[in-house]
Design a protein that fits this description.
The complex is a heterodimer of chains A (246) and B (373). Chain A has 246 residues and is α/β, with parallel strands linked by helices. Chain A is 38% helix and 26% strand. Chain A contains 9 helices and 10 strands. In chain A, the strands form 2 sheets. In chain A, strands 6-7-8-3-9-10 form a 6-stranded mixed β-sheet, sandwiched between helices. Chain A has a 4-stranded antiparallel β-sheet with strand order 2-1-4-5. In chain A, strand 9 and strand 10 form a beta hairpin. The longest helix of chain A is centred in the last third of the chain and has 16 residues. Chain B folds into 2 domains: 239 residues, no CATH class; 104 residues, 3-Layer(aba) Sandwich (abc type-2 transporter like fold). In chain B, 69% of the residues lie in helices and 6% in strands. Chain B is built from 14 helices and 4 strands. Chain B has a 4-stranded mixed β-sheet with strand order 2-1-3-4. The longest helix of chain B has 32 residues. Chain B starts with a helix and ends with a helix. The chains are: A alpha/beta (246), B alpha/beta (373). Chains A and B meet through helix 2, strand 6 and helix 3 of A and helix 1, helix 8 and helix 14 of B.
Chain lengths: 246, 373
């Protein structure tokens, strides 16, 4: 069965001066899948995600996101959601103000925003927080809201850049439940993380090292191939191989 | 457009929810006007002086009464000998000593020419000028009256000091334009640089850049509310100047507002440039405060007249926007000058605005392409 590709990357190279941050990356992401991007800090994850989001242009190679070339970021930006590792809601605005703001800048009308806000808050059982300032909410709730806001306008793809860094285990679990629910609505989830256990939750995982993709498959296939009991062990094996060959 | 409006609305929400910002925005101008208007007076009232009257005649007595009766002076000591002058000054209670020579009235009527010596405390240069100026004015006034009485053209004391645009030497006439200059640069440059840098520091800028909003829309949306608030502030200051200090705008109000708009734009583009250059809110505040407020206070002619500065500062001030703006404001507000008289300054400010806008646009573009971090 031919699955619909929402991201196509072929031979993506990004250089900063003489430093090669992304070295000939090639991969496809399919509609509705949870695509994990793993790697140590400085492996080139953030550079790649910035190019996919239209924040930065590739030096060479072909990048198509939601059917549009990375050199036309305006079209891409309309069709994606984004949540950065840093908390991205406004602390001095209320929950509803924040939702209205992000709905508004993605071109939604107040008529669309209002009922959807009610439904969203009801679903998260956050009804009582509607008029609360974000700054006074506990971190776990903030994080979940930030994710809900990132997919509020029903993007085709949502990019999550280390969304769970600094979050307690229970919230992380609930967070992943939200990710699953989002993917089941047909929204593709592109997530970077450095928590190896989270990689197990992804449909497919890419492991990056020094700007290159060193492995890409489903978590179970990868474990089998490298004869590892977990992604963490696998990651360590790959890293060790690298240092030995180097 | 709708996206843009949603963003501008949020910016207003920020401002109105943060009462501290509001206090700075509206409390500061009001406080400054009152402080400068009432406390920091550079004109003179009730200055203590001493008189050494060697003449003891009708004319000297009449002059002493007039001087004492004026609101500017208040005679503290009557001295008897020259030796008392020095101690009187050292006690520090007096600004000047006025000395009448012994044959004062006689000389005046016979020779039509008499001298009154004024010794002023030069350690307060500004006051010394005022004291001598006022005293001379009182003497002139008296001799003018005398001349009329005698119906002979006998100028008794020659120097004529006349303040053309500010006859009463009221200092708030001069400082209101300065306050507007200071407040506008403060709000437009400082507030916008802080608000933009805050988005960077908190990480929300990244999310905005990923959104369909174009970078120029983000910047415009951030500065538009401050443009509006600055204008409201100008109007508040002008109304205060009018009702509290009786200083109406002599020239065209629309020209004045237009010049203010230009200056606000200039401030905003400097603010954007600052925000493109720093990462931390504190840095933005320091650069705006030290880099913009100090020159405005010291080198714009707002408090210290540029004519009295060493030439080098005069040249330096030519490159500072506040100098030109203070000049324009004074021309319009106090002299009632039209555009014909302020076009040069306007042109210079417009050129500076264009320069800063292009520079900040370039800087932002470079940053975005380098990875925006």
């Amino acid at each position: 069965m031919e699955r619909e590709k929402v991201i196509e990357v072929k031979d993506l190279v990004k250089k900063f001066g003489s430093f090669v941050a992304n070295d000939h990356l090639t991969f496809d992401v399919y509609k509705g899948e949870i695509f994990g991007f793993l790697g140590a800090n400085g492996a080139g994850k953030t550079t790649a995600i910035r190019i996919l989001c239209g924040l930065s242009r590739p030096t060479s190679g072909k990048v198509l996101v939601a059917g549009f070339d990375a050199n036309h970021p305006e079209e891409i930006k309309k069709r994606i959601g984004y949540m950065s590792q840093r908390f991205s809601l406004y602390n001095d605005l209320t929950v509803k103000d924040n939702i209205e703001l992000y709905g508004g800048i993605y071109g939604m009308t107040m008529k669309e925003i209002r009922p959807r806000t009610e439904r969203l808050l009801a679903k998260l059982s956050f009804n009582q927080y509607g008029d609360t300032l974000i700054g006074s909410l506990p971190p776990g709730i903030k994080q979940k809201l930030a994710f809900a806001v990132a997919v509020f306008h029903d993007p085709e793809i949502v990019f999550l850049d280390e969304p769970t860094s600094g979050v307690d285990p229970i919230t992380r679990r609930q967070f992943w439940e939200m990710i699953y629910e989002t993917a089941s609505r047909g929204i593709t989830v592109f997530v970077t993380t450095h928590y190896m256990d989270e990689a197990e939750y992804c449909d497919r995982v890419t492991i990056m090292n020094e700007g290159m993709i060193v492995a890409l498959d489903t978590p179970s296939a990868l474990r089998e191939k490298y004869n590892a009991s977990s992604i963490e062990e696998l990651f360590l094996k790959i890293a060790r191989q690298k240092t030995e060959t180097a | 457009m709708k996206k843009f409006m949603a963003f501008v609305k949020k910016e207003f929400q920020h401002i109105f929810r943060d009462y501290r910002t509001l206090i700075i925005l509206f409390g500061l101008p009001a406080a400054q006007i009152l402080i400068f208007g009432y406390a920091v007076r550079t004109d003179l009232t009730n200055a203590g002086i001493a008189v050494l009257d060697n003449a003891h005649d009708v004319v000297s007595a009449e002059l002493i009464t007039r001087i004492n009766a004026s609101e500017f002076f208040h005679i503290k000591y009557f001295l008897n000998t020259y030796d008392e002058i020095d101690p009187a000054f050292k006690k520090g209670k007096i600004k000047a000593v006025i000395i009448f020579p012994d044959d004062f009235a006689e000389r005046l009527t016979r020779e039509g020419n008499a001298t009154v010596s004024i010794i002023a405390d030069g350690s307060e240069g500004n006051n010394a000028n005022l004291v001598t100026g006022y005293t001379t004015a009182i003497l002139n006034d008296y001799s003018a009256g005398l001349t009329k009485q005698l119906t002979s053209a006998m100028p008794v004391i020659v120097p004529e000091v006349r303040m053309y645009f500010n006859p009463n030497l009221q200092s708030h006439f001069m400082f209101i334009p300065g306050i507007i200059t200071l407040i506008l640069i403060l709000i437009s440059a400082l507030m916008t640089s802080v608000t933009i840098v805050r988005e960077k520091e908190f990480g929300t800028m990244e999310v905005l850049l990923v959104s369909p909003l174009k970078p120029w829309q983000i910047i415009l949306g951030k500065v538009a509310p401050y443009f509006f608030l600055s204008l409201v502030n100008v109007i508040v200051i002008l109304l205060m100047a009018w009702f509290v200090f009786d200083l109406p705008v002599k020239g065209s109000i629309s020209l004045l507002i237009a010049e203010c708009m230009l200056y606000i734009l200039l401030g905003l583009s400097i603010g954007i440039l600052i925000s493109a250059s720093v990462e931390k809110i504190m840095n933005a505040i320091f650069i705006s405060a030290l880099g913009l407020m100090l020159p405005t206070l010291l080198l714009s002619g707002f408090i210290f007249p540029i004519e009295n500065m060493p030439k080098i500062y005069d040249y330096v001030s030519l490159f500072l926007p506040p100098r030109w703006f203070v000049e324009i404001m004074r021309s319009i507000m106090i002299k009632g000058a039209g555009f014909m008289y302020v076009w040069k300054g306007t042109l210079i400010l417009a050129a500076m605005t264009l320069f800063f806008m292009l520079l900040s646009a370039r800087k932002f573009k470079v940053r975005l392409e380098e990875g925006g971090k």
